[in-house]
Target: MaoC family dehydratase
Amino acid sequence: MTVLYLEDFTPGQRFAGGTRIRIESERAKAFAAEFDPQPFHLDEGAASVSIFRGLAASGWHTAAVTMRLLVETEFQPAGGIVGAGFEELRWPTPVRPGDELRVEGEVLEVRPSKSRPEQGVVKMRTSTFNQWGEAVQVSVGNLIVQRRPS
Amino acid sequence: MTVLYLEDFTPGQRFAGGTRIRIESERAKAFAAEFDPQPFHLDEGAASVSIFRGLAASGWHTAAVTMRLLVETEFQPAGGIVGAGFEELRWPTPVRPGDELRVEGEVLEVRPSKSRPEQGVVKMRTSTFNQWGEAVQVSVGNLIVQRRPS
Model:
């Protein structure tokens, strides 16, 4: 796996992960019990009459799984994947138990830092898809990436 | 606990949670091993020479714990806390093992939906603080909230 520096990124670059992660019902409920204990994430009956019309994984579970998928792609910045923050994060489609998720990314912008000459920022859109090709999460985030040592 | 409808929210309202959650080292490492397996989240030695200069919890762990803290506040919209999406999500300060986190929120905007008369959107800033009062996460998100049945 090649480690990438800021100079290796250009807007328009895309990458896709080969890994798929299946969201198991029991894991989704356990994640929700620990972090997002709301009826529509915990219980099929309560979920069926909620806004989700059926059990849905917590969006934070989807976000966490997306991070895992991202770590397993060829997108490997020197110093690791370090998020400075997101300007967009949304969940267009609920994640259901049994869904298999995969991730795709696109570089939107590359900016050297003015105050820190050894690093810069890569703005990236990351999209997470289910097995039907529906986007279940879309985010636009800024990652801190090291410049190539001179 | 009173259930709140869209009509119960006004810009400027603030709420704070009484709950604190302590981030234990083993839980932070286990979360990272499952969802964000990067050296600075897994191993003290590797973390000490990383951008974080010491073990840091995954930002997604902080986000998930923030959701748990939010569920335990008096902020209880009818239909649950359902995020339509975020316009901002950032982690200004790393979360360290042993940190105790708490949450505060502020309503920024309240908008009835044009296309769905039974619901609306509450834009809210949520800030997560450590035991030193430093913000470890700040987010601005849009929540789907039901209107009071007429």
Remarks:
- Chain A is about 20% helix and 35% strand.
